[in-house]
Amino acid sequence: MLELSSKVQYVKGVGPRKAEALAEVGIRTVSDFLFYLPFRYEDRSRVRSIRDLRAGEDATVMAKVLGVRVKRTRRPRFKILEAVVDDETGSITAVWFNQEFLKDILQTGRRVLLYGKVDVARRGPGLQLKNPQYELVEEGDFEPTHTGRVVPVYERVGPISPRMLRRICHSLLESLPAEVPELLPDALRRRYGLPPLREALSRAHFPEEGASLGLYNTFRSPAQQRLIFEELFSFSVGLALRREEAASLAKPRVFEVDDRIREKVRQILPFRLTEAQKKVLKTLAEELSSHRPMQRLLQGDVGSGKTIVAVVASVIVMENGAQVALMVPTEVLAEQHFASVSRVLGRAGYRIALLTSSLKKSERAELLRSIAAGEVNMVVGTHALIQQEVRFQSLGLVVIDEQHRFGVLQRAELRAKGYSPDLLVMTATPIPRSLAMALYGDLDHSILDELPPGRPPVDTLLIESGPREQVHHLIEEQVAAGHQVYVICPVVEESERSDLKAAVETHRFLATGPFSHRRVALAHGRLTAAERAEAMSAFTAGEVDILVATTVVEVGVDVPNATLVVIEQAERFGLSQLHQLRGRVGRGTAPSAAVLVYRAPLTPEAKRRLEAMVETNDGFQIAERDLDIRGPGDYFGTRQWGEPLFRVANVVRDRDLLDLVRREAEDLIASPPTTERDRIVNHVIETWGHRFGLATAG
Ligand code: ADP
Ligand code: MG
Questions:
Q1: Given the DSSP bridges, would you call strands 639-640 and 643-644 parallel, antiparallel or unpaired?
Q2: Could you tell me if the CB of 588 is within 6 A of ligand 1?
Q3: Most exposed of 284, 336, 495, 539 (fewest Cβ within 10 Å)?
């Protein structure tokens, strides 16, 4: 008999090759497998009379096989299998392409269920069923799997087809015991009317007769809700445990702020801090000087001035003799941050280093040596900073910038290397508060809710693609006034080559045509780091008037003299991305504008995105609108390093539930130990521990 914790290779129909494919997407146990839910359900329950079928519809029929034959075609190796079936109201031909093996299954006289598209027959009169799903009708109390019911549709896993997944899942459910151990506390199950786990698993894969397709396809059936609840609960317990664990940690030393450091900070600051910045810094200073490691998330709209907050915190740490790591998502951004941070801190005598993959081997070795020796005060780089061979002499503060992806793994990695630095996570993707609480529940939160003074709002214009005179006129106006302009072209992975070509061509056109008298540069992700850095730093230094760029400038780039951003094919960008791009201008005191050039016709969603951009400049409102428009889309990139963060839950779709579950999980962890609490904690450590770095908790 199988248990939920059994390895997936022991499941009937799986075997070593399939087990490998399943492991690749994180499915290792029976429980993992059963939590891999269909992404869609199809109603194939209503059996129709053959006589009533109409061309163009999808239909289920139950009929007897009258005969089968294999037809060769002129194309070699392309065979058609035809079966004539009859249900007493009439007969119809079913055809399959290249599935010759079916002739052994669909033997004459057998009763079958077929589900597929009804078509006009290619030859001869009448209708045919094209490539229908098939299933033999067994004697006795037969329960169909693929047809004749509401059926689950799975996403293929490597070589395992949706049909195979359905079959394996069905037989797996049959071999499970009538009751499986429950994770959720009984009281909780009763309070929320959640069905038993065993039942929920069965129903979530094979809905009961008469099930509401609408409910299932929106993941609102009790069975699915129960599984979502369970997953979110485990996750939230994990976060609560981490929080508890963090509270019990002590830093090896604290970072005090004295008058000398205050004076140093005053000298460095290029401007007066906003009240919001002061308030956040006060909190940070308190936490740096406390024995508990800081774990703080700083949210602030684009342009709210997060960098300087991180810089001041870094000064405090560096003045106390410890090192700082500043991590950003991309190398381009690392180069940018390195340049701007060096401008402020280099003068004050700190040694700042940039660690990227483009360093020569010898340079890299030397840099690693000086980091380990404590000669470098601050290192800027990507996630690679805390990986591999990088060793710090005394890592006091880690700043993770523009990190809207889930950061627990990085935190776990740091811990695993024996560091317990203070941690500041900064994001400009404003996350609605309830979501932030639930996802970053083990972090404390601060918000920069004020822009630096004298920032005029950015004007946003929509222009339909066509002759560009108007756009060129706007560009010329800004450049003539001594300002700078971004022209952004989209590059998406699926069409990377043609997209890059478009960016290159836009650059050539502008540089040789309407702006041949201006300085035009090009920056995209496929240039070498040196070429890109050259273009970017020339732009930063004001030596370039117009920068044609792909989304490499999306986050973090800061050139206050830039006053116009033209976004080509704006309909192809997501809303948050558009907001980020718009945030590249309006960083100084001069009036700024964003021009969104789109190609008609727009999809309804694209139209809503562009309209939202015109209607509001507020990042939090944009975030809410983004959630509404995208619905349960991939808001956070819920996939992280190959494995999805959640299997059944979707943090956007299920955000109300997430909020409620989080509170339940926190209550449980705050309550005195009982056998039930221990059981749950142990389970969470077993199943989620590796993602949370929770191995030592309990
Ligand atoms: P973000 O929060 O998007 O990372 P940045 O830290 O890049 O924003 O800051 C945006 C711009 O505002 C930068 O040019 C920065 O120098 C400037 N800035 C930040 N704080 C202030 C302030 N208090 N007064 C004036 N300018 C500021
Ligand atoms: Mg920034």
A1: antiparallel
A2: no
A3: 495
What is the radius of gyration, based on Cα positions, of the chain?
30
Helix-helix angle 259-268:306-319, to 10 degrees? 140
Q: Counting Cβ atoms within 10 Å, is residue 35 exposed (0-12), middle (13-18) or buried (19+)?
A: buried
Over residues 479-518, the pLDDT tens digits come to: 999 999 999 998 866 677 888 888 999 999 999 999 999 9
Neighbours of 129 (CB within 10 A): 27
Q: What amino acid occupies position 575?
A: L
For Cα atoms 287, 292, 296, give the angle at the middle one, nearest 5 degrees: 55
Mean pLDDT for 353-379 is: 93
How far, in Å, is the centroid of ligand 1 from the Cα of 308?
7
Longest dimension (CA), the chain: 96
Q: Which helix (H) or strand (E) holds 313?
A: helix 306-319
Q: In this structure, what token pair is assigned to residue 557?
A: 């780039």
Tell me if 253 sits within 8 A of 675, measured CB to CB. no
Predicted pLDDT of residue 403: 65
DSSP secondary structure string, 324-366? EEEE-SSHHHHHHHHHHHHHHHTTTT--EEEE-TTS-HHHHHH
Using an 8 Å Cβ cutoff, are 403 and 426 in contact? yes
Q: How far apart are CA 448 and CA 301, in angstroms?
A: 7
327, with CB counted inside 10 A (0-12, 13-18, 19+), is: buried
Q: Which two tokens stand for residue 658?
A: 């997430």
How far is residue 27's CA from residue 13's CA, in Å, rounded to a whole number? 15
Q: Are 641 and 412 in contact (CB under 8 A)?
A: no
- Nearest ligand to the CA atom of 308: 1
Q: What is the DSSP letter of 457?
A: P
Ligand 1 pocket residue status of 305, Cβ below 6 Å: yes
Distance 329 CA to ligand 2 centre (A): 11
Q: Are 527 and 535 in contact (CB under 8 A)?
A: yes
- The two tokens of residue 260 are 């000398």
- Note whether 64 and 111 are within 8 A (CB): yes
CA–CA separation, 637 and 406 (whole Å): 8
The closest residue, in CA terms, to atom 18 on ligand 1 is: 305
- Give residue 303 CA to ligand 1 midpoint distance, Å: 5
Looking at residue 493, its amino acid is E
SS3 at position 549: strand
* Model confidence band, residue 21 (pLDDT cutoffs 50, 70, 90): very high
Q: Helix, strand, or coil here: 617? A: coil
Distances (CA, A) of 626 to 131, 449, 574, 575, 605: 39, 19, 8, 6, 10
β-strands 484-488, 546-549 pairing: parallel
